[in-house]
Design goal:
Elements (H helix, E strand, L loop, with lengths): L1 H46 L9 E8 L2 H8 L11 H11 L9 E2 L3 E5 L5 E8 L4 E8 L2 H10 L4 H29 L6 H19 L2
Antiparallel strand pairs: 1-5, 2-3, 3-4, 4-5
Helix pairs in contact: 1-4, 1-5
Protein name: PepSY-associated TM helix domain-containing protein
Pfam family, one: PepSY_TM_like_2
Organism: Undibacterium umbellatum
Length: about 210
């Protein structure tokens, strides 16, 4: 009688853990599925970046800042950590289609320079402080470079950085729950642990033998 009670208790415990592991496994997989496809695909493009030829496209804009706004910049040129005034930001966005997105400027007696690195490209803005002459250059390296930079978190900002962290946690939950599910089903699948060990040993051997 006691043995039957123990078996029933074990079955109930197994059913409880299977239910919860499956639930966490499918939820985490659903959360990270699309991002995992993106990161897997860009892992291939990054690994073969030397063979994938990029064709940078450079666009330029020129203009001249109104005197009233230029005087605002000249009033700030001796302050190293000063931000670009809001009115200057608004004029650049409306008249030239240039958005600084809060990038910190670099000040010198002759000019103010704003670097605007971004995923898949780069941009910079220069405003001469004597006559208000504006030079802007945008370089785009294409969609593959854009997604590669998303993979690396290069120049992607705080929001994307947080997303990568959340995505990584979801992947960890997916993998850990998958490992426990493997354990619970391993008795009926003899090849489970040899395949898991192979997945561990193969990259380890490759690293020890071919990476110096």
């Amino acid at each position: 009688m006691q043995s039957g009670t123990d078996n029933l208790s074990q079955q109930q415990s197994r059913a409880f853990w299977l239910r919860h592991l499956h639930q966490w496994h499918w939820i985490s997989s659903a959360l990270c599925l699309i991002a995992m496809i993106l990161f897997a695909a860009t892992g291939i493009t990054l690994n073969h970046s030397a063979q994938i030829e990029a064709h940078p496209v450079v666009s330029k804009k020129e203009g001249r800042l109104p005197l009233a706004l230029l005087s605002q910049l000249n009033a700030l040129k001796n302050t190293d950590d000063a931000a670009i005034p809001g009115e200057v930001n608004d004029w650049l966005a409306q008249d030239l289609g240039i958005k600084l997105n809060g990038q910190a400027p670099e000040w010198s007696p002759e000019e103010v320079y704003v670097g605007m690195p971004r995923p898949g490209g780069d941009a910079w803005l220069r405003i001469a402080l004597d006559n208000g002459e504006i030079e802007y250059e945008l370089t785009s390296r294409g969609w593959i470079a854009y997604f590669n930079d998303l993979h690396k978190g290069r120049n992607t900002g705080t929001a994307w950085s947080w997303f990568i962290d959340v995505f990584a946690v979801a992947c960890l939950i997916f993998c850990v729950t998958g490992l426990f599910l493997l354990k619970m089903h391993a008795s009926k699948r003899p090849s489970t642990w040899p395949v898991v060990v192979f997945g561990l040993v193969m990259p380890l051997i490759l690293a020890l033998m071919f990476i110096h």
